[in-house]
Design brief:
The protein is of the alpha/beta class and about 325 residues long. It is built from ten helices and eleven strands. It has helices at about 25-40, 60-70, 85-95, 110-115, 150-155, 190-195, 210-220, 235-245, 280-290, 305-320, and strands at about 10-15, 40-45, 80, 100-105, 145-150, 170, 180, 185-190, 200, 225-230, 250-255. The strands form four sheets. It has a three-stranded parallel β-sheet. Helix 1 crosses helix 10 (about 305-320) and helix 3 (about 85-95) packs across helix 7 (about 210-220). It is globular. The chain starts with 9 loop residues before the first strand and ends in a 5-residue tail after the last helix. One of its GO terms (biological process) is glutamyl-tRNA aminoacylation. Pfam families: tRNA-synt_1c (PF00749).
């Protein structure tokens, strides 16, 4: 597929409009903005409204207004995933033509039965890999969704890539263990066949899955660096493999610390996180900056000065690392 020619640095903040920004999402927004400014790069905003049933009417405009009040202004007009379905359809067709996507007829009940037979019980926050029920055909079931042939793709991976571990964006061992480097977390590894298996590309309701949409959009927008919350770290191997399968560049990844509630759970809209109060933008940004282990600035500091101070501190912290 055709991709944008990247400038030296292009980053993005990609919120889902399921509600206004909360304290945790402001941390991710500030971190991605700081990283772009520290690299003298371009910062984009992409509204990830790929799942309309979860989206809140008007939340996208609220998010953009919150960012603007905090001085976090994108360098190009925002884009909405809901307007980009043709790009996702093209990518899915490319994978189908290459034999890397197949139809799946599994219902939730089918999957649950297969998992039970494999002894895989549901655990909170633990994903269960696709059991491979339709990997060799639908067996008379109607097609409901499309899946990425992850198991097939990895099993046919050229083992020679293992020797490029010091220079490649990621590498895979014969055991299927995928290794990559996170700019904050350091060396990471995962066997995606055991974590997710053949994951969904297009859902039974016809909507495109997050994994496909985010990879296609990052490629088309020429994204070179992704800065996002640590809860998305486990998605990285799937996205690296999809990028490779689609012939897309691999961005560099940095996953930021999460803002947590008193019980240790991630602060999220799902758990009722309130909208971040940006009536005092500097106070809101100071709180976010402290979560990024940056020093707060004086209340007398102007917003522009505060942002510049944090840029300088972020540059000293992360530009000294391998980007």
């Amino acid at each position: 597929m055709t991709v944008s020619l990247p400038c030296p640095y292009r980053g993005r903040f990609a919120p889902s409009p399921t509600g206004p920004l909360h304290a945790g999402s402001l941390v991710a927004a500030l971190a991605s903005w700081l990283d772009a400014r520290a690299h003298h790069g371009t910062w984009l905003v992409r509204i990830e409204d790929i799942d309309p049933p979860r989206c809140m009417t008007g939340a996208d405009q609220v998010i953009l207004q919150q960012l603007s009040q905090c001085g976090l202004t994108p360098d190009e007009p925002p884009v909405w995933q809901s307007q980009r379905h043709a790009h996702y359809a093209d990518a899915l067709e490319q994978l189908r033509a290459a034999g890397l996507a197949y139809a799946c007829g599994c219902t939730r009940k089918d999957l649950e039965q297969a998992w039970q037979q494999l002894g895989l019980v549901h655990e909170r926050h633990v994903e269960r890999p696709y059991p491979g029920t339709c990997r060799d055909g639908l067996h008379g079931k109607p097609a409901r969704s499309w899946r990425f042939a992850l198991q097939k793709y990895i099993e046919n991976w050229p083992l020679a890539l293992d020797t490029q571990a010091q220079t490649a964006p990621f590498f895979i061992e014969p055991s299927h263990m995928l290794h990559w480097q996170d700019r904050r977390l350091g060396a990471e590894q995962q066997d995606p066949t055991q974590v997710a298996g053949d994951f969904v590309l297009q859902r039974a309701d016809g909507l495109y899955a997050y994994q496909l949409a985010v990879v296609v959009d990052d490629g088309l927008q020429g994204i070179t660096h992704v800065v996002r919350g640590e809860d998305l770290t486990d998605n990285t191997p799937r996205q690296l493999l999809l990028q490779h399968a689609l012939g897309l560049p691999h961005p560099r990844y940095l996953h930021t610390p999460l803002v947590r509630m008193p019980d240790g759970e991630k602060l999220s809209k799902q758990h009722g996180a309130p909208a971040v109060d940006v009536s005092d933008p500097l106070a809101a940004l100071n709180t976010a900056a402290q979560n990024l282990q940056l020093q707060p600035v004086s209340p007398a500091t102007t917003l522009a000065d505060a942002l510049q101070q944090w840029v300088n501190e972020w540059r000293a912290t992360y530009n000294s690392r391998r980007d």
